[in-house]
Amino acid sequence: xxxxxxxxxxxxxxxxxxxxxxxxxxxxxxxxxxxxxxxxxxxxxxxxxxxxxxxxxxxxxxxxxxxxxxxxxxxxxxxxxxxxxxxxxxxxxxxxxxxxxxxxxxxxxxxxxxxxxxxxxxxxxxxxxxxxxxxxxxxxxxxxxxxxxxxxxxxxxxxxxxxxxxxxxxxxxxxxxxxxxxxxxxxxxxxxxxxxxxxxxx
Length: 202
Ligand code: SF4
What we know:
By secondary structure, this protein is of the alpha/beta class. The protein contains ten helices and four strands; from the N terminus they run H-E-H-H-H-E-H-E-H-H-H-E-H-H. It has helices at residues 4-22, 56-61, 68-77, 81-84, 115-125, 138-145, 150-154, 157-160, 174-180, 183-200; strands at 47-50, 90-92, 132-136, 164-167. The structure holds iron/sulfur cluster.
């Protein structure tokens, strides 16, 4: 735990870095709707949620997980919107901060690869209270654990908690995956909620 002057200095550095991110145009030429970084951080956050990249609705509103996937994620975590968006406790730092567009097949394009190397390590270094990181979706999982099947890392929840937990991207496409993997609802979610809610109550 940092002392009060240290906390203030960290918060000031984090605010300066967030302003720098807000002005980023590093991959603007590749962004169909232009840069609009969507990231929420604080020096006091204890939980970090890392997903992939904003969709169009998140781009329009500037509010992360402000869509059907966000509703499903909050349901998995047992969090109200108020708890989920309490930046003092919960930081939201995706793998790519701006809407990356779509693939030719209509699916979401991957997060821009320029983004995480530019910003992620610097941001996380200014959040010293983080205790639990949720890696949501294959891009965040691969960034941390390397390539491989997403389900393998999700199934390792007992080994990863209480520090980390890998989750599938909570889109409607995951409904069939959940049915095929009943341990996700029966075992993983209760274990994750217990750690998460204890962390948020500290
Ligand atoms: S996606 Fe990341 S690197 Fe690209 S413009 Fe947005 S903030 Fe900058």
